[in-house]
Amino acid sequence: HVGHGGFLNKQWGRGFGQADCFGKSPGGVMQREMEFEFAASRVTFFQGIMSWILAITVELGITGWQVPVPTGAAAETNEGRALLAKRQLYYCASSSVAFLFLWMLAFFNWHLPFYQNYFQLVHRLLSLTWERYIAHGGAPRFTALAALAPLVASIWFGIQAMMLA
Questions:
Q1: pLDDT tens digits along 120-138
Q2: Could you tell me which residue, 145 or 27, shows the higher pLDDT?
Q3: What is the DSSP string of 19-48?
């Protein structure tokens, strides 16, 4: 029987049988009863899509920037005009995808229940992560703190790679 708790009573102090599973919407129940999981799934899914779209934007922009720009008499030839057109098309594609990125962010912010905007959702997820996994019960957990070292290294190396590009 699900309502007897067992594992769930040890984790959250109650089982599904004691949870309030009624609400105005399924999302409302998820947000109220399992806020960390709700926020994590929304942030990671949306962040994955947005990172992919932003990567396409950057790749198109860098590729356009790498197209050689003919100068002087070379710019007036058919090959020179073709190179300039190629560069402009890469910039056109990059800015179009950037528009899509911002449009999706605006749409997501407008249709985001329970939070004012995407950044408040991310802030709440980080707060829940800190409360639940790092400083659970007041004393920091060593393994969770140790996991921050590779995260900081990953961010550092990512910044260094972007500076070299």
A1: 989 999 998 888 877 777 7
A2: 145
A3: S----SSHHHHHHHHSHHHHHHHHHHHHHH
- The C-alpha atoms of residue 125 and residue 131 are separated, in whole angstroms, by 10
- Contact status, residue 112 vs residue 33, Cβ threshold 8 Å: no
Predicted confidence (pLDDT) per residue in 41-79, tens digit: 888 998 899 999 999 999 999 999 998 888 888 878 888
Cβ pair 98, 107 in contact under 8 A:
no
Q: Which residues contact 30 (CB under 8 A, 6 or more apart)?
A: 37, 38
CA 107 vs. chain centroid, Å, equals: 15
Cβ-count burial 136-155 (b if 16+ within 10 Å, e if not): eeeeeeeeeeeeeeeeeeee
End-to-end CA gap in the chain: 58
Distance, CA of 11 to CA of 91 (rounded, Å): 52
